[in-house]
Request: fold
Amino acid sequence: MILIHNTASGKKEELETVESGHVRMYVCGVTVYDDSHIGHARSYVSFDVMRRWLMHRGYRVTYVVNYTDVDDRIIDRSNQTDEPWEVIARRYIASYDEDMDRLNNLRPDITPKATEEIPDMIEAVKTIVDKGLAYEVDGDVYFDIEKGKQWFGTLKHQSIDDMRSGARVEVDERKHNPHDFALWKSSKPGEPSWESPWGKGRPGWHIECSTMSSKYLGIPIDIHGGGMDLIFPHHESENMQTWAIEGKALAKYWIHNGWLMIDEEKMSKSLDNFFTIKEILDRFDPMVLRFFLVHTHYRSPIDFSDANLEEARQAYERLATFRLALERYTEFAEEEEVEGLEEQVEANRLIFGRSMDDDFNTRLAVTQIFELVRIGNQVMMDHRLSKRLHRILEDTFDELTGVLGLEFDLVGGEGASLVAGLVEYLIELRHEARDAKDFEKADGIRAKLKDMGVVLEDGAEGTTWRVER
Ligand SMILES: [Zn+2]
Ligand SMILES: [Zn+2]
Reply:
């Protein structure tokens, strides 16, 4: 039994799929106007882990993630840079795909682009207009939220009337209710546009996702996911639209991942505490970033800081070192059994599974992997590791880390430690040269290493080095 926290009910619910044995899952994709940031990394790694776990439990999973490749922000960027919007969209789709591959997210089964689905979106808007639930003003079409108010609040847990008295929103005289949202937007000359019954324009963001999820998965889909910031207005609006069109809810389970904070503040482009995935991967191995993300439960906030990433790096290294030691181990003990350890490994495996079944609790699951490491290191140190237990440890470790999408470089690991040894040796030679006042030689070593991409930094604690990629 798998429990999933459903934002709609605010509770954990047992997963019961619409079709037996088949999970149909839609996660809102990125708007491709810039490189993806680490908030995106968090979200898509979280959903990738869920998908992997559901597959591990024997479900067939159909996983759809779209690209929002027409949007105000893409148009703004195009106006600023004089680049065609299609070129910008294509570049950042490729950039996103590259980031996801490096983070070892499995490619989705279907990745629709909004711009390739426009006729279906126009049909969807037409249906809502025909039912009298939307109105047109000057080529824009708005969803009439008063007329759909019985469907409002599934995720926000507030009624339209609560909303009216509470929030401050921009007043637009053309709208019936300030919360009415655009299903279709008229375009200015030079902007991307498609012919429609309301003139040239483009779809609103919310109708894109309603259309693509129902087209590729059928309604209701099992799981609709995204970051917490998408609950309102995006997902609430998607759900209302689908009620309006299909007469039923868009999804059975709504899953939202928690915030990613930077040094305990909310990430924000304007506050300049903002990192792209590429910036982080210049400094950290993709598996370290992935480990950092999965060792917290997906609904808890994550605090992103250099210190926390460094901690994750050390923890990941501990796993990598263990896996390599296991790989190289040859001095097997004779006896078939070490009292109770096989059972202990199996117990860790079961607790891992129970944690994952409980709303994908990767935080608890990861502790079980470290239990394996503890057991394994102990028996290796004691020279009590039998061939049989060795195989069980290896299989279990690979199974559990694999479900989290963590990989370990068993060949490169040896190369990497060889490189580290050589660099340390050259640093030592450089210090000796400096002590002997042979600065030419010392600077020569530094320059040579720099040519090879190894940067030295002298500090109070001695010299550190890093590889600049
Ligand atoms: Zn099916
Ligand atoms: Zn969406």
User: Anything to note?
Assistant: Residues 413-467 form one domain. The first strand starts at residue 3 and ends at 6. The mean pLDDT is 92.
